[in-house]
Amino acid sequence: TQLIFGPGNRPDAPKLLILVTDGQSFDNVQKPSETIRDKGVTIIVVGVASAVEAECKIIAGCDPTSRDCPLYKSANWGSLVGEVKGIIKTACKTLPKDAVCNEWSDWGPCSKTCGKGIQKKSVKEPVTISPAEPGDNGKMGRTCEELYPKTVKKRECHLADCPLDATCGEFGEWSECTKQCGGGTQERVRDVYNDPPAENGGKTCEQQGLLKSETGECNKDPCPIDAVPGPWDEWSECSEPCGWGTRTRKRSKELVSAQYGGLTLEQQNIATEESEACK
């Protein structure tokens, strides 16, 4: 039953089971065979050698005491091959015939222009061309309404492979700045670039507007500026009109003041005032 009703079966195809047996079953064959037949399966039984005729007829759904059972064939191993044609003819006569209905429309366009998509076709209103007919087992073939409970069929479609853009990777770490202060530059590079490359008309990294490397500004703070002393003023008068005395002089205002953490004159040990002996 797994082969008939499980994955892979065709729900829109007639179901036929041909059983070849050469002995007697130790189980009750009536109930399981009825279950299979109730699901629309026609069972043809071929009894060979020591097969029990009454049991074979029960499996086929016939009266075990009746001589007339078109679904049962008796054969021996030597004639079994020759019986195959007769079994096929019996099967064709025995199976109920489904109604002939108007055909499905052509498959519609694929839902996607590339990759996996879905195609549909439909029967708007099932129209019976020839009605269903019963088989020898008394089962009626399926009507158009039964054959087309859903008026739309679907299937996967694949027109072409989708374009695949190149892999461009991620940027690595920034390089060291070219300057410690005052504005320098640094660079970073992608770990991969066009690897793997574009396929099926996909875009390269350049076409995606992605550069392999980029440059940025760094250390934009101004560099420290040390103070620059101004020139010395003139010496003062000597402190003594005669003999030895001292005179002094001072620097004018700084030409450049310390900025951005630069050193002052004091930090540079540059004097702003000095004296010397005089007479």
Automatic annotation (TrEMBL):
This is VWFA domain-containing protein. Residues 1-88 form the VWFA domain. PROSITE patterns: TSP1, VWFA. It comes from the Eukaryota. SMART domains: TSP1. Keywords: Disulfide bond, Repeat. PANTHER family: PROPERDIN (PTHR22906), SEMA DOMAIN-CONTAINING PROTEIN (PTHR22906:SF21). It holds the Pfam family VWA.
